[in-house]
Specification:
The complex is a heterodimer of chains A (897) and B (353). By secondary structure, chain A is mainly β. Chain A is built from 8 helices and 56 strands. Chain B contains 3 helices and 22 strands. Classes of the chains: A mainly beta (897), B mainly beta (353).
Chain lengths: 897, 353
């Protein structure tokens, strides 16, 4: 009885084992910034797998993964998620990894290879392999098959070959070859290859031999490149123009200022993205001002992305998953800013096990902890950064500087909970504080709060839904400590934003439709005394507003050559009370001396603006390796950063549109040609033109702060920006890099009149930099060492220069030229960095690297500004201020476990 | 603001290795020199001046006077004519304007073009309460752009704010002037040592302004109006006097000086207001669009003083050198001829009595 029972148990156990395929095999491994090729190779080696893939054609992307007792199917799902590759399981237990066009979503990522029979036996080509004269024997024969294109005879790699009789599967290598060991006999092969007709072959195998097969090309649909993936020809395949992608790895590749890798500083390596100089907040895209960029962190709006006067950004590179900059075509699901969208996504916490990572840098350190709260269901990511510049400052021998303060901290968290495979809730929170104080003299600071709650639900294979509720607030403060006039000036703005979107993938269409509502609530400018100061309390109210938008956007792959991204957004903005509405004799050109009345309105809608915003981008691939793209966008912007300083400051004020300050409206046009060759080079040439209505320029010497008649300080005008961008990028090799040239102009004009700027003529804006050359270079010296170099040249930005001088009551006064009539000297800078991985073993639990960087290698004293000072009572001198006037070396240490 | 800009630069120079250096700037040659009319009418007995000039090329001399101009002060129906002096300025002597009365200046160039200032009312006087001084350490920029710490003497003023409680806004500015007494040494022969009264105007580029608009109280206390950063040799032996001239001006003048201050206090940092040509309150009678620089200011004045003893100056700032410290044979010229010093006079100011 016992024997029978044991036999039954054994049979049952064998049955269970047979039911478990290789995809259920449990994997425990960790990879840090490793290439996919290496990871698959390592999985094969360590876990005795038989993963079939063409190593040469795998994307040259890298990723960091940690698996603990994870099923192989989940491991592959994670690794291949963003790669346009699928896997399938053959009947013989082999796992084949191939492009999605070969192993489609329907076929792939499933447990077994269940491809429908599409070809009848009549379609099969018949071959005898080996000598007809030979009788089939019992010895194993090796059949080697070489696949080639019928027209060009080029080898076809990545083809999946199924021997239907046995279920065996192979993948062709870069030479288009594969081989099987089979006993002589009759076999049927089904060959599926990227962009080729599927071929059915009947073989009469008699002995070992080589078979050459020709495949015919077919028209096929190229999948839209997903946002997180970037490979050869991504620019060719993307439907939309001017999309730049950046992931954590790329951010860390670039030499960093003071050793702090930074998203926004990395963006400056892209063509068409610039800044006014070191120490200036924000960034400029294709001639737009910094407030014309919609900056999103996990979908939540960011008003001020700066730390320490713009030297660093709020985006902690350790938790950035990916970021996308839309600088050309802006799909209809984005709105409210006319120049660009920077969409930064933070990664979610690890769902399987706890990890800790961090870095120690010259100016700041950071620490990130991933906490799985419920295995594969709930995770929490917590990260924090803090500068310790106050300790460095304290060591400076200058007493005033030693008494000063310049620091920041930020903390953020992200909680992810999966209710099911189809429903996920993600909550994120960010808070930061910056403070700068010089001795006992003056200072300023700001705090940033951003929170977002996102619910995502997959309704069906074709339909998903998401809803975002976000909140943000920024508070600015300026203060002086000089009595008797020491003061504190507070201002701020907050918002509550709800956005809901439905995404429908129907055939060649990817349709997004949604609604977005934002309520802006400003804090009044509050002036108050500091300690014993005689300054009295003063409050100047700022306007509130709300913005509502509905949109629909369709990414449509019409055919292999032609695709489009078209959308329509309808936006409405309402200025709401309470507010004081000033009226003037000439409302189009309000001046203080023409002020007629001021009416206090307690609530309700005061002013409404609305507009239709059509967006379209068309791609036509005239050959596989090249495409042309056209786009047109119309965008309204209802909120403005009000600043009347030479360059924007971190404490500038946001102002919503009101009765006098009208929405900024832009029409963006662009045309580009994109190509790729040798799978290693991407080339792009893009031209664009942008016209702007209702630009805000500032009357000479206008006062912005605490001005209840702000409209009298500004003058409304028009603007235009145009340019051409050319770049060539080398990818997919140990040495990568990009060189680009950009011709860009951005100009403004105000109506002629007494308050006009430069008598109503076109004049260059503050960030007009006609010529820009950028080059970056990255060399993977070995598996452990990387060298990077970055070079930037651009024409100096416009400034208002001197034309003459005169004497007024013994004050020597410099008489200035027309606005922005001169230029600073040209800017150029070279940066280098070297990163060395301190781990000898890839699989080490504790990983660390060290980064050495040189910023401004040859110590160029690039001018940030020119100013004039009469010092010796006899002459006025011009001075050049260079914010970074020397080579800045830095070292940082990064770790994780 | 000047100070704020400078210390901002110093902060970043120490923290981020920035640098400040003289810059050779290529200026555009002006197509046409711009007319500058600059004048002041105070509640004193005068002399009151008006200067009529044209702008000069950047880096050149600052004044290019226009001679043969007719300058008149207009008040109600009365016209008072200015006389041209040797330096090409126009001076009105022996006239004391009345508070509350409206004045404007009319300028007729030799070419016949006529310019007129916007009429303004002479403001009421504000009595300054007192002036005092203290010593501190500050940051100064040399002509070569090098920042350094220096011991300095700061001058402060206490003043009254009239009618602030009733909502009347007072606008004021200050100008300082140093005066020291310099006694000659006995140089032998027929030389009779005398004392000179040497006046040194404060740095006019440091413009101190005040508006009572956002101020609580009836008195402003401890407003810094001057900083003395260095002391050339032979300045004073016994005492140094700081005269603090307080001008009460109207809102238009205050706004003009505020703009002018933003031009003279540029520091090159992100906080600078963009500079521009500064229009004043004078315009061409036939062509109001013509750019005319300068300002005709009406101001009621009051003066307070503080006395700095040489002993406290030497103790806190140092830098005083006396003739007697030199070998008699190598005395500088001013030790025997004090009138060679800039601003020297043998006339004793009446307020010293």
């Amino acid at each position: 009885m016992r024997i029978i029972f044991s036999i039954l148990i054994s049979i049952l156990f064998v049955q269970i084992l047979a039911g478990q395929d290789i995809l259920d095999k449990r994997i425990s491994a960790a990879y840090e910034e490793d290439k996919v090729k290496f990871i698959l190779q390592d999985l094969n080696r360590r876990f005795d797998l038989d993963l079939k893939y063409n190593a040469d054609n795998l994307p040259n992307v890298e990723g960091s993964y940690s698996f603990k007792d994870t099923r192989l199917r989940d491991v592959l799902n994670i690794i291949l998620k963003d790669l346009d590759f699928n896997y399938l399981l053959s009947k013989t237990g082999k796992v084949v990894i191939a492009p999605k066009e070969v192993v489609t979503d329907e076929m792939g990522s499933k447990d077994t290879f269940l491809k429908d029979e599409k070809l009848s036996a009549d379609d099969a080509e018949q071959y005898i392999i080996g000598s007809r004269d030979l009788q089939r024997g019992n010895d194993t024969a090796i059949i080697r098959v070489r696949l080639q294109e019928v027209e060009t005879f080029n080898p076809i790699a990545d083809a999946v070959v199924l021997i239907k009789n046995t279920g065996a599967v192979e993948v062709s290598d870069i030479s288009g070859e594969f081989s099987f060991s089979l006993k002589p006999g009759l076999y049927t092969l089904e060959i599926t290859a990227l962009s080729h007709e599927t071929k059915l072959v009947e073989l009469d195998l008699r002995s070992s031999d080589l078979l050459e097969l020709n495949l015919t090309k077919k028209a096929y649909l190229i999948e839209e490149v997903v946002i997180s993936g970037k490979g050869a020809a991504h620019n060719v395949k993307q439907t939309i123009t001017g999309l730049e992608l950046l992931n954590k790895k790329e951010i860390r590749k670039l030499p960093a200022f003071m050793g702090e890798a930074d998203v926004i500083k990395s963006l400056l390596s892209f063509t068409g993205v610039s800044s006014i100089g070191e120490g200036a907040s924000g960034f400029n895209v294709r001639g737009g001002s910094i407030d014309q960029n919609l900056i999103l962190q996990d979908g939540a709006l960011v008003f001020n992305p700066s730390h320490i006067l713009g030297f660093f950004s709020i985006f902690n590179p350790d938790v950035v998953s990916n970021s996308a900059l839309y600088k050309g075509h802006i799909p209809a699901n984005f709105g409210g800013r006319i120049s660009s969208v920077l969409d930064v996504n933070m990664r979610e916490g690890n769902m399987e096990f706890t990890t800790v990572s961090g870095s120690i840098g010259a100016i700041a350190s950071k620490l990130t902890v991933d906490l799985p709260l419920a295995q594969n269901k709930t995770s929490l990511l917590i990260s924090g950064r803090s500068s310790y510049s106050k300790y460095l400052i304290g060591d400076i021998r200058d007493l005033d500087v030693a008494r000063s303060l310049a620091n920041f901290y930020d903390v953020q968290g992200k909680l992810t909970h999966k209710f099911s495979d189809n429903t996920k809730l993600v909550g994120s929170y960010y808070q930061s504080k910056d403070r700068f104080r010089f001795s006992d003299e003056f200072g300023y600071g700001w705090t940033n709060q951003i929170a977002n709650l996102r619910l995502g639900h997959i309704l069906s294979d074709d339909l998903s839904f998401s809803a975002d509720l976000s909140y943000g607030k920024i508070n600015n403060q300026q203060f002086t400590l000089d009595n008797p006039l020491a003061f504190t000036l507070d201002s701020g703005i907050g918002y509550l934003n709800f956005k809901s979107q439905v995404l429908n993938k129907r055939g060649a269409h990817l349709i997004k439709a949604g609604i977005e509502a934002i309520s802006y609530k400003t804090s009044p400018e509050q002036l108050g005394p500091n300690e014993d100061s005689q300054i009295k309390q003063l409050s100047v109210a700022k306007e509130d507003g709300r913005e509502l938008a509905v949109y629909v956007n369709d990414q449509f792959e019409i055919n292999q050559q032609l695709s489009l991204d078209a959308g329509l957004r309808y936006s409405v903005f309402q200025q709401v009370g309470p507010a004081t509405v000033n009226t003037y004799a000439d409302d189009l050109n309000p001046t203080l001396d023409q002020s007629k009345s001021s009416q206090q309105i307690d609530g309700g809608v005061i002013k409404t603006y609305q507009g239709l915003e059509p967006r379209i981008s068309i791609r036509y691939a005239f050959i596989k390796q090249a495409s042309i793209k056209l786009s047109y966008n119309r965008i309204n912007q209802y909120i403005h950063l009000v600043s009347n300083t030479a360059t924007p400051t971190p404490v500038d004020i946001w102002q919503v549109s009101n009765t006098h300050i009208k929405p900024l409206v832009a029409n963006n046009y662009s045309f580009g040609v994109f190509g790729t060759f040798d799978d290693q080079y991407d080339v792009a040439a893009d031209v664009y033109y942008k016209d702007l209505e209702n630009t805000l320029d500032y009357k000479d010497f206008s006062a912005i702060l605490l001005n209840p008649h702000l409209e009298t300080a500004v003058v409304r005008g028009v603007g235009r920006a145009y340019g051409a961008e050319i770049s060539i990028e080398k990818i997919n090799s140990a040495i990568t890099g990009k060189i680009s040239y950009n011709y860009s102009r951005t100009e403004r004009r105000t109506p002629p009149g007494i308050t006009s700027v430069n008598r109503g003529n076109w004049f260059p804006s503050n960030f007009d930099q006609p010529h820009t050359v950028k080059a970056n270079f990255n060399w993977q010296i070995s598996k452990r060492a990387t060298f990077s170099m970055n070079f930037l040249y651009n024409t100096g930005r416009p400034i208002t220069g001197v034309s003459s001088n005169y004497l007024l009551q013994n004050v020597i006064v410099t008489n200035f030229s027309d606005r922005n009539d001169f230029r600073l000297p040209d800017y150029h800078r070279l940066d280098m960095s070297y990163t060395f991985n301190l781990n000898r073993r890839k699989s080490a639990r504790f990983k660390s690297d060290i980064n050495l960087a040189l910023y401004n290698v040859y110590g160029r004293k690039n001018a940030f500004s020119i100013f004039y000072r009469q010092l010796e009572r006899v002459q006025t001198n011009a001075y050049k201020l260079s914010v970074v006037g020397a080579t800045i070396p830095s070292i940082s240490y990064n770790f994780s476990w | 603001m000047v100070r704020r800009g400078i210390i901002y630069i110093v902060f970043f120079s120490l923290f981020f290795s920035n640098c400040l250096e003289p810059f050779e700037f290529e200026t555009q040659a002006e197509e046409e020199k711009i007319l500058v009319i600059d004048g002041q009418l105070t509640t004193s007995n005068g002399p009151h001046f008006v200067r009529v000039s044209r702008t000069t090329a950047f880096g050149q001399k600052f004044i290019d006077p226009i001679r043969g101009v007719e300058v008149n002060l207009i008040s109600d129906a009365a016209i008072y004519n200015y006389k041209e002096n040797a330096e090409g300025a126009y001076v009105l002597n022996g006239f004391k304007p009345e508070v509350g009365k409206e004045y404007s200046v009319e300028v007729t160039l030799p070419s016949g073009q006529q310019y007129i200032s916007s009429p303004a009312i002479m403001p009421d006087m504000v009595e300054a309460d007192s002036a005092y001084h203290s010593f501190d350490t500050d940051i100064v920029i040399s002509s070569t752009g090098v920042e350094r710490e220096a011991k300095v003497l700061d001058v402060f003023v206490n003043t009254n704010i009239p009618n602030n409680a009733e909502g009347e806004i007072s606008y004021m500015r200050w100008f300082t002037e140093e005066l020291f007494i310099f006694p000659e040494e006995g140089c032998g022969g027929l030389h009779q040592p005398k004392s000179c009264f040497v006046s040194v105007p404060g740095n006019p580029q440091n413009i101190t302004l005040f508006s009572s608009e956002n101020i609580d109280g009836q008195k402003l206390e401890g407003l810094q109006v001057a900083t003395k950063t260095h002391m050339p040799i032979f300045h004073f032996k016994a005492a140094l006097f700081f005269s603090v001239y307080q001008y009460r001006i109207d809102k238009d003048a205050f706004d003009y000086w505020t703009k002018l201050r933003s031009l003279t206090s540029q520091s090159g940092t992100v906080f600078d207001l963009p500079p521009a040509s500064l229009r004043g309150n004078i315009q061409n009678a036939d062509d109001p669009a013509e750019l005319v620089l300068g300002y005709f200011e009406l101001a009621s004045t009051d003066t307070v003083r503080t006395r700095v003893l040489s002993s406290e100056y030497k103790e806190n700032v140092n830098g005083i050198v006396f003739c007697s410290q030199f070998d008699r044979r190598n005395w500088p010229e001013e030790c025997c001829q004090c009138l060679v010093l800039d601003g020297a006079s043998t006339v004793r100011p009446s307020w010293l009595d």
